[in-house]
Amino acid sequence: MSSSCASPAAEKTSHAEASGTSRSATPPATEAPAPASRGTFLLILVTALAPTVWGSTYLVTTEFLPPDRPLLTALLRAFPAGLLLIAVTRTLPRGDWWWRAAVLGGLNIGMFFPLLFLSAYRLPGGVAAVLGSVQPLVVAGLTRAVLRETVPLRRVLAGIAATVGVSLVVLRAEAALDATGLVAGLVAAAGMATGLVLTRAWGRPEGAGDLALTGWQLTAGGLMIAPVAFAVEGWFPPMDAAAVGGYAWLGLVGTAAAYTLWFRGIGRLPSFQVSLLGALSPLTAAALGWAVLDQSLGPVQVTGFVLALAATIIGQLPAHRRTP
């Protein structure tokens, strides 16, 4: 973000007169980073936990859940978690927030989950991950159009570098492309990017906190997924203890907790800055695949991993401003 759009904590600078300096002798202005407060740094770290946890989804899905039930998995991730958060907060939307919660729930959950799984099924996992990694660039355009804010060139370049890095980590030479999968992946990324920007634009409803807002969206999204899931995949399959544990992890930790942290970050940090953290999801998936599933990471993958991680970190650094 430009200095006018960065978070308040990242924009504050201290100004002190140098001792013994004449008023008539004004030193030339220099570029100095605007110091970020410890609170902003911790907020970034906490928000980053969400995509890091999402990176475990592939491992949990392939190792513990029933096969070929992506829509039912999406439903079990979203709907019970949403109802739980509403029960805990005992807060329902009011006024315009009924339709706003439905719109955000549709973009962030109801549309995103099915299209994401469709993309993953029609495309190699690497291609689907790369499509998701373009989300920050979509956010940059929407930030300009909706929020009237400009994303600094440094952060846009960081977003491009992160996409290149993710591509090096997950793409393989034999990856085949499918038109339906490509469209689904791009629409999913664009939809969640739109939801992210609208969440930032609409702010927080009066009297409702992060848990309540997350619960509304998960419930609305789950209600949208349910008829499609049952029509396409039928009723729930038999589940063993491993499957129950896997669904519990995805629902409680990977959805209820992670999305609460994610939406909390969206409400307090610049939109592009938050979206750039999404690169941590495929990076975590690759790291878990190497550590747990014995998947190989060659020199190209390691280079891409370092590039994407470095770009994500650079994209979180406070904007520079001129100081005397």
Approximate helicity band = 55-70%
Question: In what range is the share of β-strand residues?
Answer: under 5%
Number of strands: 2
Kindly report the spatial arrangement of strands forming the biggest sheet: 1-2
How many helices? The count is 15
Query: Which consecutive residue ranges, at least 5 long each, have pLDDT under 50?
Result: 1-35
As for the number of domains, it is 1
Mean pLDDT: 82
What is the approximate shape?
globular
H/E element order? HEHHHHHHHHHHHHHHE
What's the N-to-C terminus distance? Answer: 21 Å
Name the descriptors.
single chain, 324 residues, mainly alpha, two-stranded antiparallel ribbon, 15 helices, 2 strands, 69% helix, 2% strand, disordered N terminus
Write up what this structure looks like:
The protein has 324 residues and is mainly alpha-helical. The protein has one domain (36-317). Helix content is 69%, strand content 2%. The chain has helices at residues 8-11, 38-54, 57-64, 70-89, 97-110, 112-122, 125-133, 135-146, 153-170, 179-202, 210-233, 241-268, 271-276, 280-292, 299-314, and strands at residues 30-33, 320-323. The longest helix has 28 residues, at 241-268. Residues 1-34 are annotated as: Disordered. The chain crosses the membrane at residues 41-59, 71-89, 101-121, 127-147, 156-173, 179-199, 211-232, 244-262, 274-293, 299-319.
